[in-house]
């Protein structure tokens, strides 16, 4: 359980029944627990002082017993296309980013699950940072709440979708990601449907199986980006221990257990994975998994990597090849490139 430097327990790490037990020791009536729980998960208080329907004594008692570390917005950048990138500061002064991607129909939050990342994908700015630590589930929840506030404040609309495609590998922070999603889904949390949430993984086969065994209700995206092991090893070192065959098996297990939507993500890199042969290999994988969709993503250059975006004709040829073979593929143009908020660009830059 997370503690602050003063070693007090984080109150949001308590379950409802643990909080009830604590209130029994205080001889406080049960409705007080409900009030505090509401402040923690629905009214989004960030300090005990904000819990104005509690007596001052009770607030002081809670503050003496527990810590209440909450994420704060450290900096915000606005893209010309409407995308908003936020840098959040944690209680221990770490920084992590989240993005609000608005379209006419959707307001999507792209959230982070770790501070930095250990998987070192070659095309991703986060992959060039060290992994500092996992985000706790209440910190992930805070990211969503703060981005939802931005969505309501800027566009007058609540978030419609959440994608775990920010910094970090969600399946290497499995418990916190699932617990955060439980709070996001819960009627006494944000009350958002799991069908509107997509968790994206670089491919941790064992944990994809675990998602199936846990019968989760959210959608899954696999960042494939190369359709044979030799090329995938080159750009995603995790493939050396989680090869494409292992991922196909794990995805089939996920689908068998949940019937939830699966998407492949495939960034096109000029001269690396954009040929008709690459498309054929991608089609072969698509045929082995009950995937709904292949998202073909425009590459966003980062300082460290040498890849380039293919020219438009090559992109169109690749798409036409997929369509001819009846692959449900969509070309995604990334948003927020001018503020380094696009796919693969998150790196806490100012
Ligand atoms: S793409 Fe995802 S898993 Fe790979 S380095 Fe970036 S954040 Fe980590």
Brief overview:
By secondary structure, this protein is an alpha/beta fold. The protein contains 10 helices and 14 strands.
Keywords:
350 residues; 34% helix; disordered N terminus; binds iron/sulfur cluster
Shape: elongated
Instruction: Please give the alpha-carbon distance between the first and last residues.
Output: 32 Å
Number of helical runs?
10
- Please state roughly what percent of the residues sit in beta strands, choosing from under 5%, 5-15%, 15-25%, 25-35%, 35-45% or over 45%: 15-25%
Unreliable segments (pLDDT under 50, ≥5 consecutive)?
A: 1-5
Compute the CA-based radius of gyration.
Answer: 21 Å
**Assembly level:** single chain
Q: How can the largest sheet be summarized?
A: 10 strands, mixed
The structural class is alpha/beta
List all distinct small molecules, including ions and cofactors, that are bound in this structure: iron/sulfur cluster
Overall pLDDT: 94
Give the proportion of residues in helices.
25-40%
Count of β-strands? 14
Output the strand order for the largest sheet.
3-4-5-6-9-10-11-12-13-14
N-to-C order of helices and strands: EHHHEEEEEEEHEHEHEHHEHEHE
């Amino acid at each position: 359980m997370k503690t602050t430097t003063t070693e007090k327990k984080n109150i949001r790490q308590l379950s409802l029944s643990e909080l009830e037990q604590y209130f029994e020791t205080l001889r406080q009536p049960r409705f007080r627990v409900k009030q505090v729980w509401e402040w923690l998960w629905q009214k989004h208080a960030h300090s005990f002082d904000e819990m104005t329907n509690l007596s001052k004594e009770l607030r002081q008692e809670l503050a003496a017993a527990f810590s209440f570390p909450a994420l704060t917005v450290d900096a915000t950048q606005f893209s010309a296309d409407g995308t908003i990138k936020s840098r959040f500061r944690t209680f221990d002064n770490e920084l992590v980013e989240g993005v609000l991607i608005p379209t006419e129909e959707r307001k999507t939050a792209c959230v982070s699950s770790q501070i930095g990342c250990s998987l070192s994908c070659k095309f991703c700015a986060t992959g060039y940072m060290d992994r500092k630590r996992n985000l706790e589930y209440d910190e992930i929840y805070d990211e969503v709440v703060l981005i939802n506030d931005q969505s309501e404040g800027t566009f007058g609309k609540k978030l419609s979708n959440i994608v775990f495609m920010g910094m970090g590998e969600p399946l290497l922070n499995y418990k916190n990601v699932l617990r955060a999603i439980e709070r996001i889904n819960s009627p006494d949390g944000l009350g958002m449907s799991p069908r509107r949430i997509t968790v994206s993984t670089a491919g941790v086969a064992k944990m994809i199986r675990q998602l199936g065994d846990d019968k989760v209700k959210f959608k899954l995206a696999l960042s494939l980006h190369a359709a044979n092991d030799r090329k995938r090893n080159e750009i995603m070192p995790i493939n050396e221990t989680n090869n494409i065959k292992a991922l196909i098996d794990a995805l089939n297990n996920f689908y068998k257990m949940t019937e939830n939507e699966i998407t492949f993500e495939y960034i096109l890199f000029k001269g690396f994975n954009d040929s008709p042969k690459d498309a054929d290999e991608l089609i072969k994988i698509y045929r082995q998994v009950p995937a709904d969709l292949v998202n073909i993503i425009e590459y966003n250059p980062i300082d460290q990597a040498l890849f380039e975006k293919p020219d438009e004709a090559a992109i169109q040829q690749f798409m036409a090849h997929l369509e001819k073979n009846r692959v449900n593929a969509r070309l995604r143009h990334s948003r927020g490139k001018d503020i380094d908020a696009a796919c693969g660009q998150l790196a806490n830059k100012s």
